[in-house]
């Protein structure tokens, strides 16, 4: 399946659900997602090219430029990442 065609998901996840899932990957519990944490999250959600996508999503959503996704920036991240068809594995 070409990577640029979003995978169809049987049910749409709400933004809150996706946020909750992503925050489970905050391994060091600092309340922010680093690029490594994001990459792991994407990988476990079944995304291909997770390293590349994590970098792209981080650059897009990281509004204050600190290299991490905090709670405020999470909405941007979720909206951006949802185009890739996130799913619960
Ligand atoms: Ca973290
Ligand atoms: Ca940030």
From TrEMBL:
SUPFAM superfamilies named in the record: EF-hand
Domain EF-hand intervals: 13-48, 56-84
Family annotation (InterPro entries): EF-hand-dom_pair (IPR011992), EF_Hand_1_Ca_BS (IPR018247), EF_hand_dom (IPR002048)
UniProt keyword Cell membrane, yes or no: no
UniProt protein name: EF-hand domain-containing protein
Keyword Transcription: no
Classification via SMART domains: EFh
Originating species: Solanum commersonii
Gene3D superfamilies: EF-hand
Superkingdom as given in the UniProt entry: Eukaryota
GO molecular function, one term: calcium ion binding
Keyword field: Calcium
